[in-house]
Amino acid sequence: MVVSGLRVAVQGLEILKGIDLRVESGRVHALMGPNGSGKSTLSFALTGHPKYTVTSGTAELDGADLLALPAHERARAGLFLSFQYPAAIPGVSVANFLRSARTALKPDQSLPPAKFKRLLTEKMELLGMEPAMLSRYVNDGFSGGEKKRLEMLQMAVFEPRYAILDETDSGLDIDALRAVGESVNALRAANAETGLLVITHYPRILQYLRPDRVHVMMEGRIVKEGGADLADLIERDGYDPIREEAVGGAA
Amino acid sequence: MALPKLAADEGLTRAAVAALSRQLGENDLACRARVDAFEAFERLPLPAWRLSRAGKRTLSALDLSSITPYAPQPAIGSAPEDDGAATCIVTVDGEPALVRLAGEIAQQGAYVAPLEQALYERPELVRPHLGSVVGADTNRFSALNAALRRGGLFVHVPKGAVLREPIELLTIVEGASLFPHLLIVAEEHAAVDVIERIASRANPTERLRLLCPVSEIVAKAGARVRYAALQQLGDDVSEVAIRRATAGRDANVELAPVVLGGDLVRSDAEIVLEGSGASGRVREVFFASGRAAFDLSSSITHAAPHSSGDALVLGAANGAGQAAFRGMISILEQGAGAESNLKSRALLLSPKAHVDAVPGLEIANNDVKAYHGATVGEIDEETLFFCQARGIALDEARRMIVTGFFSPVVDAIASPLAQAWLHHAIESKL
Ligand SMILES: Nc1ncnc2c1ncn2[C@@H]1O[C@H](COP(=O)(O)OP(=O)(O)OP(=O)(O)O)[C@@H](O)[C@H]1O
Ligand SMILES: [Mg+2]
Question: CATH homologous superfamily of domain A2-250?
Fold first, then answer.
């Protein structure tokens, strides 16, 4: 997935001021940055949220012009977003939702109900989820951790080509974090091509998902890039040194 | 019982009322009662129409003088195909077209028959209750129903009898206006579910058709009655419905008015908790689409100690559809220890759609717990986007969210068949 010169405005206010970012398939990219720097805005702009207006720039997914597609077709093209705050759908059971969504995403790979059920149970076990969750309404009354696990279940069932994990790790207890890490790694083992963009504030998740590349966003720009050790550096020193470096560079 | 064709100019007159009575083979007393009811109809005022944006779409716009008050020809033989085994009664323009009773009706000593037949066969069971819950003089339309009553059903479940399968009633409006009367009597500790579907066929007369049903439910001590009325009339029929239940000591009544169709519709439903420990549940659904205008109300009246009430109303409006919903909890002085709650939620699915939700509380006793809440809103944008981000196209996502919105009531309907029908009916409006 290749993003170039992406500028994005929300309600007339420019939030992203020219983002260049390449997420390689089969690789793990970490995106870090202080609160409000624009990480979720990037996720929404790429997945086609109607409130986020792309004012210039391009985004390609394996050659396809992502920005020309309506949101549901971006998902069908293979882009998945694990929401920082997933929405609830009262009255729609997890099982029905997963089935409808999978049919929409993979119309030519339909599974008979029994097989689909087996697929779900297997992935849920890996994520430490109770089968009873299947009959609950999507995210309705779910705890923060339950929502994140359900996001990961969807990712496991939909097998996207690229996935953005927007703070999937925040609010998870240690066990849940490990379960999420293992589930994502299982997906990567089965689909070696999957490219990941992991948005996080904490290096802990990155111990499960060793990033090939770390990108740092500040005030709507990518201001620094590096290897996995950059995350450790940020954990130790915070963002100030990078901020000063960026300001110094600009000056 | 072929009825002579009424001349168009006969319309809604005393002569038409008397003619109907004669054709139904009634005695003078019954005819007199109809004519008295007709006079009450002429005297009583039109009930208020409570939509805030009604404009000209009001009950007073109904030209009652131009209706055909009953179908001239019985439509026997045109019942829909049906080969199930459950108890099922189909009426077309008030004439029974299919009466099928499951084995358990006789086994349990219950009695189920079209109302006119019941009045003839078992007057001692029917007479004491007919009009005891909804009196003819309740309002202008109950009076009109009593004057032109035709069709409907009588259900009697004797003491201790429990019917396992729901009784299905299909009411079809075709050639004329219709004034059916449903009476359900559950004796002590009896239990029954009745599911009525109300539909219309294309109008052969092009005259205004009014459906004006009255339903009465008597649940005696310890009885359990559930009644769902699933209305999907065409937009060339208007409806004024009155449904009322009384619950005796520890009795349990559920009313589920579902209003999906019709042009101008007024529906009033009430459960009166008369015995101590009685409980009442209202599960209401409405969906106003096209130009439809609905004026709906549901009330639970606590007239005895330690009664409990629970009302959930889910509605939607689409196109230029509009609806006013009034939910009322009244707790009378003798209602100490009552617990009651009422929630209504409505979805606006288009910019021109409009819903007024007005919850009301009248409490004359301090020792009670009552809660009410009403919301009216649009489909949540973040929920829509969430679905789209999972590959689901916008229309499909809306359908999914709206269907889910209604599911707390739809999934609670006693018959899977009726559930499926309702799901389909709701989806077809999106
Ligand atoms: N829908 C919106 N309406 C108004 N402002 C928005 C909206 N979305 C984002 N913003 C603004 O854009 C800026 C970037 O927000 P964004 O959510 O992208 O940050 P973030 O990097 O994801 O932060 P966090 O780490 O706290 O999740 C913030 O100032 C935010 O208030
Ligand atoms: Mg964010």
Answer: P-loop containing nucleotide triphosphate hydrolases (3.40.50.300)
Q: Is the CB of A200 under 6 A from ligand 1?
A: no
Distance in Å from the first CA to the final CA of chain B: 42
* B412 CB neighbour count, 10 Å cutoff: 15
Q: Which ligand is nearest to the CA of A15?
A: 1
Q: In chain A, where are the structural domains located?
A: 2-250
* B282 vs B235: CA distance, rounded Å: 25
Tell me the mean pLDDT per 10 residues along chain A, length 251: 98 96 96 96 98 97 96 98 96 96 93 92 91 96 94 96 95 90 90 94 88 96 95 92 78 45
Could you give the CA distance from residue B84 to residue A248 in angstroms, rounded to a whole number?
82
Residues B292-316 pLDDT 10s: 999 999 999 999 999 999 999 999 9
In the stretch 83-142 of chain A, residues with CB closer than 8 A to chain B read 83, 86-92, 97, 100-101, 104-105, 137
**pTM of the full structure:** 0.90
ipTM entry: 0.96
Question: What digits encode the pLDDT tens for the residues B127-136?
Answer: 999 999 999 9
CB–CB contact B391 A86 (8 Å)? no
- Alpha carbon nearest to ligand 1 atom 7, residue: A10
For residue A236, the CA-to-ligand 1 centroid distance in Å is 25
Nearest-Cα residue of chain B relative to residue A100: B392
Q: Which residues pair with A98 in a beta bridge?
A: none
